[in-house]
């Protein structure tokens, strides 16, 4: 069983590709959390987790989910994280919650536009192409239950994951700066794509409810580009994974 979390589609695509290549099933962690029901995991069944790196750590929803999976059944457990650049010690943090046999990081297009910008179009394509080329090898290692630790931690990884990561979860998860501009048509897509059910449409405009995961799906998916985060996202690109990037 492959459990994934994804805001802007990178990790969903990776999870689905790996499911196709290994004959497994990809299941959304957000859907499990919303429904309160997790598919049964048989004794010894391999478990995979695919997630985006947030501030050099796994998203809290992923860590909490992993911590609640059945205790070690001797099964093969692996994880793949997607990140714009570097994973820090995200996998070391995850393996403390759920003992991992193997871990990989994959560079994918950056979606963090609160401080940075989206990648240029050619970088987006190059990252997706590079990931697509690596996935069959990763899938084969998973099928062979190989023990691999192929994670690009990057510079000052320990410091970033132990200081900035927890600070992000504690102080930077507020959704108070999200707002919709006049160009919002009230289509409701932001509400639909929010994995945390954190958006409600009131009088045809989105309202953020205070339970944000900071996945940025809402801001990237809005077809009118009507959502901004304070002034931090003005004039910046928007990104969402699309199969067209594979052409
Ligand atoms: C809140 C947040 C924090 C992020 N932090 C990092 C980071 O520490 N390192 C990094 O390389 N990319 C970081 N990114 C970029 C994402 O990890 C990357 O774009 C990922 O592939 C997005 O996956 P998704 O499309 O499945 O949501 C961050 C993105 C968000 C939204
Ligand atoms: S997706 Fe954009 S246009 Fe549609 S309701 Fe949300 S903010 Fe408005
Ligand atoms: S409100 Fe936006 S950023 Fe927050 S969890 Fe929902 S989609 Fe993600």
Written description of the protein model:
The chain contains 8 helices and 10 strands. The chain has 247 residues and is α/β, with parallel strands linked by helices. It has 2 domains: 168 residues, Rossmann fold, CATH 3.40.50.360; 69 residues, Alpha-Beta Plaits. Helix 1 packs parallel to helix 5 and helix 3 runs parallel beside helix 4. The longest helix has 23 residues. It starts with a strand and ends in an 18-residue tail after the last strand. The structure holds flavin mononucleotide and iron/sulfur cluster (2 copies). One iron/sulfur cluster binds next to helix 7.
List the SSEs and their pairings.
Blueprint: E1 2-4, H1 10-22, E2 26-28, H2 29-35, E3 47-52, H3 60-67, E4 77-83, H4 90-97, E5 102-107, H5 121-143, E6 149-150, H6 157-171, E7 178-180, H7 189-193, E8 199-202, E9 205-208, H8 217-221, E10 227-229
Parallel strand pairs: 1-2, 1-3, 3-4, 4-5, 5-6
Antiparallel strand pairs: 7-10, 8-9
Helix pairs in contact: 1-5, 3-4
Bound molecules: flavin mononucleotide and iron/sulfur cluster (2 copies).
One iron/sulfur cluster (SF4) binds near residues 187, 222, 226 and 227.
